[in-house]
Amino acid sequence: MARFGRWIGGGLGFVMGGPIGALFGFAIGSVIDNVSVKKIEGGSATQGDFTLSLLALIAVVLKADGKVLKSELAYVKKFLVQNFGEQNSKELLQLLKSALDKDINLQEIAYDIKANMRYEGRHQIVHFLLGLALADGEFHKNEKYIIEQICVLLGITPKDQASLFAMFVKDTESSYKILGITKSATNDEIKKAYRSMAKKHHPDKVVNLGDDVREKAKEKFQTIQQAYEDLKKERGF
């Protein structure tokens, strides 16, 4: 089995000692070999932390509607292959399949992530999970409920939660919701909201989590930019 050390880059941080580590069986060393492990304090996480935290929550969302579809697994596999290569993605998918066979305590997992990962990383996790939930073209009510729960447990603000959902579930007010405002907002309020969102969710905010996560963050950032451009066109300013 290829070693994960080359993509983890020096340490798994919080996942080794908490419920995520227990979920993937790291305590007995069945997956990771010869990796330097250190506890990371102060809400800072590594690329490996992000990926394994994401896998844990992916398992929760995949099980939400009682079935795991090929389209959903393909969505996950595409992300992993693009960012970690074919061989490492196979090993990560094996970890995911192992997690699917276990009872996962969502509250413990989410608490561990919240305590050790910055807000921007947690926000990016939810963005990925929403894309996963819609990979089959349907947003099942149980998937929606679980992701709403995850948002609360990860400390995602109601305003940001509404913005994230609006990026994937479109209606006539989606552009406003993405920017965290209502249709009654003035043009100046729209400009101010865009500047605030652009600053808050700039891809550079997650640069510590690796280039792969930063690339996904760019997609989210482009959605925010598009919402602003659509409102500029609609309002004529």
Walk me through what this model shows.
With 237 residues, the chain is an all-alpha fold. Helix 6 packs antiparallel against helix 7 (141-153). 63% of the residues lie in helices and 0% in strands. It folds into 2 domains: 1-156, TerB-like, CATH 1.10.3680; 158-237, Helix Hairpins. Mean pLDDT is 81; it is low at 1-11 and 27-43. The protein is built from 11 helices and no strands. The protein starts with a helix and ends with a helix. The protein has helices spanning 5-8, 19-24, 47-62, 70-100, 106-116, 119-133, 141-153, 158-166, 174-178, 187-200, 211-235.
Would you summarize the structure shown here?
This protein is mainly α. The chain has eleven helices and no strands. The N terminus is likely disordered.
Keywords:
Helix Hairpins; mainly alpha; 2 domains; globular; disordered N terminus; 11 helices; 63% helix; TerB-like; 237 residues
Topology:
Elements: H1 5-8, H2 19-24, H3 47-62, H4 70-100, H5 106-116, H6 119-133, H7 141-153, H8 158-166, H9 174-178, H10 187-200, H11 211-235
Helix pairs in contact: 3-4, 3-5, 3-6, 3-7, 6-7, 10-11
Contiguous low-pLDDT stretches (5 residues minimum) are: 1-11, 27-43
The CATH architecture of the largest domain comes to: Orthogonal Bundle
CATH class category label of the largest domain? Mainly Alpha
Coarse shape: globular
Question: What's the β-strand tally?
Answer: 0
Q: What is the residue-averaged pLDDT? A: 81
